[in-house]
Amino acid sequence: MRRALVAIAAAAALAGCGSVVRVAYNNGDVAARFMAHEYLDLHGEQSDHLKGQLARFHAWHRREELPRYAALLGDASGRLAAGLERADVAWAIAAVRERYRATVEQAADEFAPVAATMRPDNLAALERKLAENNEKFAREFLSGDADKQARARAKRLTNWFDEWLGTVTPEQEARIAAFAQVQPDLNRIRLEDRKRRQQEFVALLREHRKAPDLAARLRDYLVNWERDRGAEHRRQAREWEERLVTLIVDLDRTLTRKQRDHVVRRFAFFAEEARILARQGQPAGTTAGGAPGTALAVQ
């Protein structure tokens, strides 16, 4: 279910700009409720229970995670200003994985009481929605021949770099296209792995929703999502990540002054937005970390 239903809205809220970011984040629990209803078709007490658990998760995320996001984004802005090395990109990947782990562990604890109420109709709704998502994934990433798929990959990557750099140069666009052209058939393997993981998730809810260790099982499922990949998938994913790191470092070395200023300001902007959001709702005289007069250190 894309890692954790209750984590998605909070994480995605930092993708907007200005006050839009704050409005999206401050209403993240509402967005997550709509998503949960779309996936699970919740009713009555289930819906009320989910509302309470999401409010708890949202408060935790604001208190504990946003200060860490602010520190990480600020650090990233400084590294970008100085120019990236492979170690900087590896640092960013490790930091994202660490924050993912913390978020889904908390999400599992909050979702477990709701998962315990799942009925056959909820699980049937979940299976239907997951099947729809898989069909959409196949249409977007696996339609057409290899050249068409490579062009689509290059376009998606170029649009992403455009967003962060302003506008990519023709040389940079050619580097991105070359990266996309030689990508292995990883999306097909990813789709099969998605289906396997989805079946495991539905089975977990069906067979263990009343188990006293449900939260622990959910944490294990969400944290160790790469554990049971096949050998070929692990190899291709590792090689793809190494090539992506190389692409990012190579592109960084071609940045114009305008592009570097743009991406540095963008990361600094999001760091400040995270700090503002972390302060909202805090008692007077209390920092985002929760203790009067103290600051939360990144762990």
Describe the structure.
This protein is an all-alpha fold and 299 residues long. The protein has helices spanning 5-12, 18-26, 28-40, 44-82, 86-115, 120-142, 146-165, 170-181, 186-208, 214-223, 231-252, 257-279. It has one domain. It starts with a helix and ends in a 20-residue tail after the last helix.
Secondary structure: elements and pairs:
Elements: H1 5-12, H2 18-26, H3 28-40, H4 44-82, H5 86-115, H6 120-142, H7 146-165, H8 170-181, H9 186-208, H10 214-223, H11 231-252, H12 257-279
Mean pLDDT: 87
> Largest sheet, described in full?
none
- Number of DSSP strand runs: 0
Strand content: under 5%
Concise structural overview:
The protein is mostly helical and 299 residues long.
What labels would you give this structure?
299 residues; disordered C terminus; mainly alpha; 12 helices
